[in-house]
Amino acid sequence: MDWYKIVNSSDGADVYLYDEIGGWGITARSFLNQIKQIKGRITLHINSPGGDVFDGIAIYNTLKDRGEITVKIEGLCASMASIIAMAGDNVEMADNSMMMIHNPWAGMNGDASEFKKMAEVLDQIKALLITTYKSKTSLSDEAISLLMDQESWLSASEALEKGFIDKITSSVKIQNSYSSDRYRNSEVYKKWEEINAESQTNKTSTPPQNIKPIQREENMDELFEVLGVKDKAEAVVKIDSLTTQVTALKTKNQKLETEVTELRKVNVEAKINQAITEGKITPAQKDFARTLINKDEALFNEFVKNAGNSKSDLTQTITLGANADEELSWEVLMKDPEKAGELYNTNPKLYEELRSKYMEDNR
User: Fold this and answer.
1) 108 with 185, same domain?
2) Which residue segment(s) compose the domain that 350 sits in?
3) In angstroms, how far apart are the furthest CA atoms of the chain?
4) Domain count, the chain
């Protein structure tokens, strides 16, 4: 199954993009090879949810360089499909159609550095897409960026007002073979589909109007008031400034957290070394003492206090059999640090049970 269809005629061809661009294992190369064979005009019919960014850019560039392109939007023109539409010398949009523009996104696996690199790539792609939209519309870079940030769904009248299209045509019957669920504001498109289906069932030609995501224009004045700005352009600048400040604070907070962690490590080692210097615990008990202080400093202090009074032979082999288990208690372990250390290494589950019981009994 192809995501496109080309119907040749004596004066050129009608090209139909009626599915996901780059889907079904067919890349843009196959599509572009056929486009290059067309002589004369091209009428590009679009009803697509978008698709691969680089396939879309390749298609846009080829069509734009070729010229003699008329674009007819006949349903949904979303994501990269909206970029391809900008290649038209004349862009028409049926009054029961919608256009959607949003930020580029990607799914990936990797470490923090790889995600940072991908974020930089996405920013570069966004800048490229803004330039492409701007070649058709008179909107500023900031205004286009804001529309992309919001994942904006535009009716034909809104697209005409903002300069993305040149003309609104009469309604067309729409049948889709794709899903819009991937998009953040897909409920907008689904609502539009419901209205459009009802309109076609009732054989009316009145297009749906002012279908927007819940939140947008009606809350803009409130947002402007909170930000202390007058319009969207000022809002973009203010939000960028706030974002920079938040990023700086996050970086500072991470640095402080790292410093606190390092200071705690130094403090822990100092306390343990002091206990060894004062002869309260032995160097062999250092790892156990470190584990204990990281879990509960009060228990570490109790351990150090009792360790100084311990008369246990450090070379003694401790056997913790079934009978011995019955006689063990946390009080016993605190008075015998060697046994405590041995139990911690050989039977951590029992060690934790005794500690928990002691804590519970002494609340």
Assistant:
1) yes
2) 279-361
3) 105
4) 2
